[in-house]
Amino acid sequence: MTLSRELFNQSLNIIPGGVNSPVRSFSSVGGSPLYIKSGSGPYIYDADNNSYIDFCGSWGPMILGHANKEIVKSIQHAASLGISFGTNTPAEIQMAQLIKEAFPSIDKVRLTTSGTEATMTALRLARAYTKRNKILKFDGCYHGHADAFLVKAGSGLLTNSLSSSAGIPQTVIKDTLVVPYNDLDAVKVIFEEVGKEIACVIVEPVAGNMGLVKPAPGFLEGLREITLKNNSLLIFDEVITGFRLCFGGYQNFIKMSPDLTTLGKIIGGGLPIGAVGGKKEIMDLLAPLGGVYQAGTLSGNPVALAAGIVSLLNLKNDNIYKQLEEKTNEFVNSLKPALLEHQACIQNIGSMFTIYFQNKIPNNLNEMKRCDTNLFNTFFHKLLKNGVYFSPSQFEVNFISTEHTASVLKTAANKIIESLN
Predict the structure, then answer these.
(1) Catalytic residue at 108?
(2) Which of 43, 142, 321, 356 is catalytic?
(3) If we measure between CA atoms, which residue out of 248, 207, 227 comes closest to residue 363?
(4) Which of 267, 286, 315 corresponds to the end of one domain?
(5) Do the Cβ atoms of 296 and 117 come closer than 8 Å?
(6) Residue 342 sits in a domain of what CATH number?
(7) Does 45 qualify as catalytic in the annotation?
(8) Per the structure, how many domains does the chain have?
(9) How far separated are the first and last CA of the chain, in Å rounded?
(10) Is the pTM of this model over 0.70?
(11) Catalytic residue at 147?
């Protein structure tokens, strides 16, 4: 028995399901999960001393690789001064300034401890600002595990949404409307019916929680037009895409200004953090200025900020994103012929990519569900045997870091192709 398996058996007795986040259980792919003890650059190492080329990157934040020396040094220095104070610290101002510099749509920023807290706060702000209750989200987009977001689409437009988690009363989710991602016509229908009741539309501008699904041409621009026409707010959840594709968010690429933006992952350099930012008149509704309450003892934690500030200062170098995109494109293109032979396909945006076990790149969750998950699961375990770690689900995104050199990516590509057979 492997040490990872022994550790998992131990954890099953004291941690629900043996894990502290469900996807870590390998329930999607089968088998026993790995226990990772360390990471360095593009590699992670499990409890049994096996090494893997890592494409999960802690689900996105490790854009500068594992155990980046400059980040580690900043964490050590910050920790030596005190781990947490529950007070204001100078680093909060520097982080807010960096975010404001990177996002033209953001006037003010409130720091949180997680992306879930950021989206919860954004939702509360939208409802307070518009004095409306309903929200509209998209099937397959994940915005954290707050009650209002754990909703899946009903059988048709304007039918009751359904909870995707036990423990959430129907009364809590009755005001959450769900339509397919990239379906602007469905959005128009709902707004024609109940537009005066909708506080906001929240969307991942590039979907990253059902595999990588890009926005259709005009989709996001259409959302902006509809929300402005109906005096609803538009919230971009850029927890994944923020600072992953450029110094800023996907909104920078398409020159759009959402009313609110939520961030996480990379702005913490791998440590827990979140943020919500937006227009001054909306953000000033937060206590102590306004009546929207939000608080957190560890919001703006100095150690997390130290790591995040170093990350963002490094990422201000535009060449980093250019190089990341170039080597990701080369890597992805090298896999396409072999994937085609196995009725699979791949796409990327910047340094994000997903392999789909179907012959068509999906446009929404329903199309994503056509992927052959059994083939992916077999492929995933072959990858592990060959020393490559992907995010453990067909419905997730993989990430490339600055530490994935051309040589590392070539080795990984060969191992991926071998794992297809």
Answers:
(1) no
(2) 142
(3) 207
(4) 315
(5) yes
(6) 3.90.1150.10
(7) no
(8) 2
(9) 27
(10) yes
(11) no
